[in-house]
Design a protein that fits this description.
Blueprint: H1 8-17, H2 28-37, H3 40-63, H4 66-84, E1 90-91, E2 93-97, H5 101-110, E3 117-118, H6 124-132, E4 137-145, E5 149-156, E6 161-165, E7 168-172, E8 178-181, E9 193-195, H7 203-212, E10 220-226, E11 230-235, E12 240-242, H8 248-262, E13 269-273, E14 281-284, H9 286-304
Parallel strand pairs: 2-5, 6-9, 9-10, 12-13
Antiparallel strand pairs: 1-3, 4-5, 6-7, 7-8, 10-11, 11-12, 13-14
């Protein structure tokens, strides 16, 4: 770096021309401005803040006019419509898989009213919620597949039991969710039947009881919910097995074990009360009581003779 030197000849020449010699050092104002420019905050305000403020001010002045704002909004809306209506964004058909014919028809009605339609105008989440509101639909997955097809994959609820509700016969799945109405019991003879208020909220326990009662075969008529807290097993010949609130499956298995050992349910028994595990109770039929009284009367008459 070379040093700046000013000789006496130069100073003398400046005096002869009437000029003051130039001081090589910066002025105080230039020095302060230079120091200020080296400050990060000042440099950020000057290089970023001032241009941003100018842009905002200009935009504000431009948008202050109502006609300009309306024109800008109209242009943006037209640009958006142009982009959304491009052929690669259009949905032209719907494909539903995993649903029966009746459910498929209902789900198709929930879909778009007309095709083609832009994929930007489809609310897939809202459409999925409407489809899953169907009783028979457990889950629905929606996506837009290649070729502009709305692909719907459905998982239907599987009927597991028939519930005789106040509204009529209803098909329920294994968790107690309603699947559909049933016109006639004979339409689903493969499913067990339950009755009573609150039966739909205890379907898992009912299914366990029906499985345990399988050895009864055709004698089993179904289960009845009592007081929304326990079950009665209903058999033919007006026989009933009253089960406790807790441990119902174990109590039923005890009755079935007695039946295998002593043909308990083949006798003139109207009711087997297992609500008290420590003291099971049997109630015989009225005909059996009358027969017992007749036999005792005969025995007393024979004793008098």
């Amino acid at each position: 770096m070379c040093a700046l030197s000013v000789g006496p000849e130069t100073l003398a020449g400046d005096r002869r021309r009437g000029r003051q010699p130039r001081d090589p050092a910066p002025s105080r104002l230039a020095y302060r401005l230079h120091r200020l420019w080296l400050t990060p905050l000042f440099r950020a305000v000057f290089t970023v803040g001032v241009p941003a403020y100018a842009v905002v001010l200009g935009a504000g002045l431009f948008l202050a006019d109502e006609d300009r704002r309306a024109g800008l909004a109209s242009g943006l809306a037209e640009l958006r419509t142009t982009i959304e209506d491009r052929p690669e964004f259009m949905v032209t058909d719907i494909r539903i898989e995993g649903a029966s014919a009746a459910v498929r028809a209902g789900l198709a009605a929930v879909g778009p009213e007309a095709f083609p339609i832009s994929s930007f105008r489809l609310d897939l989440e809202a459409m999925r919620a409407r489809m899953e509101a169907f009783d028979a639909v457990e889950r629905a997955d929606l996506r837009i597949a290649a070729g502009g097809v709305l692909d719907v994959r459905v998982v239907e609820r599987v009927p597991a039991i028939v519930w005789r509700s106040p509204a009529g016969l209803e098909l329920l799945d294994a968790q107690g969710h309603r699947v559909a109405m049933l016109a006639r019991r004979q339409a689903r003879p493969d499913l067990g039947i339950i009755a009573g208020e609150g039966g739909d909220r205890a379907v898992p326990e009912a299914l366990a009881l029906l499985a345990a009662a399988a050895p009864l075969g055709d004698r089993l008529r179904g289960l009845e919910r009592i007081g929304e807290r326990r079950w009665d097993v209903v058999l033919d010949r007006d026989q009933r097995i009253l089960l406790p609130e807790t441990g119902a499956v174990a109590a039923l298995e005890r009755v079935l074990a007695l039946d295998r050992a002593q043909d308990l349910l083949e006798r003139d028994v109207a009711l087997v009360d297992m609500r008290n595990a420590r003291r099971p109770t049997l109630r015989v039929t009225p005909g059996a009581i009358d027969e017992l009284r007749r036999i005792r009367a005969l025995e007393r008459g024979a004793a008098r003779q």
